[in-house]
Amino acid sequence: MSADPHGYSEPSNRPTALAPLEFSDLGHFDADDHCAAFAVFARTAAAICKARPALRPARPPSDTLKSLCLKALADPPRTPSQAHRFFVENFLPYRVAPADPGQSGSGFLTGYFEPVVAGALSPSAEFSVPVLGRPDDLVTLAPGESLPGLDPALTAAQKLPQGGYAPYPNRAAIEAGAIAARPVLWLRDGFEVFLVQVQGCARVTLPDGTARRLAYAGRNGQPYSSLGRILIEMGEIPPESMGLARLKEWIHAHGVGPGDPGAALMLRNKSYVFFNLEPEEADSDGPLGGAGIRLSPLRSIAIDRHLWSYGLPFWISANVPWQGPQASPFARLMVAQDTGSAIIGPARADLFFGTGDVAGALAGEIRHACDFVVLLPRGDGEGS
Predict the structure, then answer these.
(1) pLDDT per residue over 43-53, tens digit each?
(2) What share of the chain is helix, strand, coil (3-state, %, to 5)?
(3) pTM confidence score
């Protein structure tokens, strides 16, 4: 469940149409690991076939996509050539085209990761900042749903004891104690909680050495504001230097305690995320994404859930620093398995890098134009 900490908005070349392509138009497509891509697709297909509820509902899959999911599970490919054939025979590629045909690139790519942080199941002097569980009065709205009398831009509401609904309190009010919510875990400081909320997941190391995972459980529905963008507008950090590391450095340098400038900056993001503590000790599998599926590094992406269905494959190609400090070609078949409050627009994707500091360092530097191609099931089309 990602959000963009970098301070970059949707590019001006917002796509307005789908341009049909041939698979031969996708450079390096034949060289990709289609077995790896199919394995990720199949996990989402299983959830679609079982109608398993998503953590964050997205646009419903088409009947054609549902049929392809059944087909994939009934007769899965066993060789690289069979996996390649599955995608080529069952999907058609469409570039999500920019409004201005003269503009290069069609999409915008960022990265996110699963932080590893220290925490405890009970508060202490070391672990004093709570991670809140989902409150009972939070009502999450489905894409396109609204309630009478509330701003339709809100994606959640507070159910009032006397009946009716109100906008859910914002971050500042929640941190001031405006709601009744049970802590599920305790972390060291407010920025660690904020980072976990931005990434939408975390692996938490407990004092006894075991690890547990935090999974997304809901959001207050208030608008998300990028702290990176705010700092850029304030002139605190130049745009070319903005990234997760610089943001973290600035906030800690300015204090995360009540009344400190770093804490005040975080309050400017009205959005607030709640979590469940997964019942079992964390294993090597990835965190849960918005589709309720374990995410796979460099194969799972977060998309705009109002526009795309979970399970759709996307071909993403770009020149980005995905292996180290220097940019290099990235061209892979990805699967939509997640979403995020800052992932807005048809050609917008957030690439999951994995767990831990190395993944975080790489993810924090990704903010690049990309070639953005959706693979729609044959039979579906631009108007579907």
Answers:
(1) 999 999 999 99
(2) 25, 30, 45
(3) 0.87
